[in-house]
Specification:
Layout lengths: L4 E6 L5 H10 L11 E5 L3 E7 L6 H7 L6 H20 L2 E2 L8 E4 L9 E4 L6 E2 L18 H4 L6 H16 L9 H9 L12 H10 L10 H4 L37 E7 L3
Parallel strand pairs: 1-8
Antiparallel strand pairs: 2-3, 3-8, 4-7, 5-6
Helix pairs in contact: 3-5
C-alpha cells in the first residue's frame, strides 16, 4: 500500500532543543487515548509521522454540536481524556497545553457510538520535576492554572486544564468570563478559578472542584479522578436535555473521501 503523508507544520527552526523534545516524548504517542506515533524520518529535516484524525479535533466536534455537548457524553469524553493523561503522567511527562484543539477525534471504538478522543500536540510537554523558569503563561491562556503563571510545572496543571475543557464542553463558552490576558493572569494569581456550573449534576460539580483546587499538591491526579463517582454514573442518572447524541462520524463528509491521508507529518529541522 502506498504511504500517503500530509505535512502540517514546522515545529522549530535552528534549534536542537525542539528535536530533542520530540525524541524524548516519542514513547508517549503509543499509549491508549494518545495519538499514535507511526514512524520517523531523518534528513534535512526530522519528520515525525502521526496517525491521521478523520474527525478533526474536540473543538470541531463542539462546533458541530452547536457549541456544547450534553453532559452524558461529556462524562464519557472526560474519562477518555483522563485515561490518556494517566498514561502520559505515568511515563513521566506533563502535556502543558491541554485544550480542545489538541484533542483529536477518531471513529468509535470499544462498542460505543461516541468518537474516540486522543490527546495530541506535545510541543510544550515537559518532564516531571523540571522547573519552568519563565514567568507567564505556558500553553493556551484559558486553560492555564495558578501555578503555570508562576512557572511551576506539575501534572496538576493538566488536571486544571481538563476541568476547563469540561466546562467548555457543557456550556459551549470559555471557562472564564474575561478575554483580557492581564485580567485573566490577575485572577489566577489571586487564586480564582472558573465558575462551577449551577445546572450541572451534583457529582459533576464535585468533580470540577477537585480539578480546580488551587493548591496543586491537593488537586486530585488522573488516577484518583478516574475513580470519582461522577465517572461511574449511568446515563439515566445525568441531567437530561433536548439535545440528542449525534452519530458524529456519520456526518463527517471527510470520511466519504477515498484519498484521506492516514498520517500527519511534522517537520523539525536537524541543522542548528
Amino acid at each position: 500500500m502506498e504511504l500517503k503523508v500530509m505535512k502540517i507544520k514546522v515545529l522549530g527552526r535552528g534549534t536542537s532543543g525542539v528535536v530533542h523534545l520530540v525524541k524524548i516524548i516519542a514513547p508517549v504517542y503509543n499509549q491508549i487515548y494518545v495519538v499514535k506515533f507511526v514512524n520517523e524520518g531523518r534528513g534535512e529535516v526530522y519528520n515525525m509521522f502521526l496517525e491521521y484524525a478523520p474527525g478533526g479535533c474536540l473543538l470541531d466536534m463542539m462546533n458541530k454540536y452547536g457549541g456544547k455537548i450534553q453532559e452524558r457524553d461529556v462524562n464519557c469524553y472526560t474519562q477518555m481524556i483522563l485515561e490518556g493523561l494517566l498514561d502520559v503522567h505515568e511515563k513521566g511527562f506533563i502535556h502543558s497545553d491541554l485544550e480542545p484543539g489538541n484533542i483529536l477525534a477518531f471513529p468509535p471504538q470499544h462498542g460505543t457510538y461516541l468518537p474516540t478522543l486522543n490527546i495530541a500536540d506535545f510541543r510544550l510537554a515537559k518532564q516531571q520535576g523540571v522547573k519552568d523558569t519563565r514567568f507567564g503563561f505556558r500553553g493556551t491562556r484559558y486553560y492555564m492554572s495558578h501555578e503555570s503563571v508562576v512557572g511551576e510545572v506539575s501534572d496538576g496543571l493538566d488536571i486544571w486544564s481538563l476541568g476547563c475543557i469540561l466546562v467548555e464542553m457543557i456550556t459551549g463558552r470559555s471557562p472564564w468570563d474575561t478575554h483580557d490576558r492581564d485580567d485573566l493572569r490577575d485572577k489566577l494569581l489571586r487564586g480564582k478559578s472558573p465558575n462551577i456550573l449551577e445546572d450541572m449534576s451534583k457529582l459533576g460539580k464535585s468533580f470540577l472542584r477537585e480539578c480546580f483546587t488551587i493548591n496543586p499538591n491537593k488537586r486530585w491526579n488522573a488516577s484518583k479522578l478516574l475513580c470519582h463517582p461522577y465517572l461511574l454514573l449511568s446515563e439515566h442518572m445525568l441531567p437530561k436535555d433536548n439535545q440528542q447524541s449525534l452519530p458524529y462520524f456519520q456526518q463527517q463528509k471527510v470520511l466519504e473521501s477515498q484519498n484521506i491521508p492516514p498520517l500527519l507529518g511534522f517537520n523539525i529541522p536537524n541543522k542548528i
